[in-house]
Structure formats: structure tokens, C-alpha cells
Write a structure and sequence with these properties.
124 residues; mainly beta; Metal Binding Protein, Guanine Nucleotide Exchange Factor, Chain A; 5-stranded antiparallel β-sheet; 3-stranded antiparallel β-sheet; 10 strands
Length: 124
């Protein structure tokens, strides 16, 4: 596990301390209907690796479909900070662009995940 990183929304109302699973090497984008619109690059963190330092009351939760994924946004500036994953509910995806000093453009190419064909969307 890496040292904790500071993650903030754009306006600074929300601040997280996050211990990433494997640094920035887990960076990926998803092409599900929601993520492709959001466009953020996410890195992985274990559920016990994320602490809300400030602004918990300023986070808004968005869920749809199966309700497994829980996406959190700043109510003030609208920036996505993190989400509990549908692909692995035991971990968070964290907005790489919100990590202090990190510009996702400097880490291209970034892998895409196939969220369109997610196994939980298939019938029995």
C-alpha cells in the first residue's frame, strides 16, 4: 500500500485522505453509460483506505440500476470525488484528477474497462 494522498473537489469543500491500493498503477476509465459521461479517471483504494477529512455533509450520493455502485460528488462544485465500485464493492474508485499534484493527462495511455458489458447486467 502507498502513503496516503490528499484528494479534494474543485472548491475545496470536500477533502479525503486516501491510501491507494497500488499507487497510480490502477488508473482506468470505464465506458458504462454513467462513467463515459463523467469522463474521470479512477484509481483504486480499499474501503478502509478512505477517510473523509472534511465536507462529509457536502457530499451527495448518486445510485441507479442495481444500486451497487455509490457515486459521491461535492454538492457545491459538482466534482466527483469517489465511488464504491460495482465491479468490486470491496473497494473505492477515487478521482485521479482530485489527487493533489496529479494530472491524469501525464499518465496516458490510461486503460479502459468494459462497463457496458458488466456481468451483473446480464440476465440469469
Amino acid at each position: 500500500m502507498s502513503e496516503p494522498v490528499k484528494v479534494t473537489c474543485h472548491c475545496g469543500a470536500v477533502e479525503l485522505r486516501v491510501r491507494l491500493s497500488d499507487g497510480l498503477s490502477t488508473a482506468r476509465r470505464c465506458d458504462c453509460s454513467f462513467c463515459r459521461r463523467r469522463g474521470a479517471v479512477a484509481v483504486s483504494a480499499p474501503l478502509d483506505g478512505l477517510e473523509i477529512v472534511k465536507g462529509a455533509e457536502n457530499l451527495s450520493l448518486y445510485q441507479w440500476g442495481t444500486g451497487t455502485a455509490k457515486h459521491y460528488f461535492c454538492k457545491t462544485c459538482g466534482i466527483y470525488t469517489h465511488h464504491q465500485r460495482r465491479s468490486n464493492p470491496d473497494e473505492y474508485g477515487v478521482n485521479m484528477g482530485g489527487i493533489d499534484g496529479v494530472n491524469p493527462a501525464e499518465h496516458e495511455p490510461i486503460k479502459w474497462s468494459d462497463g457496458v458489458n458488466h456481468p451483473s447486467d446480464r440476465g440469469p
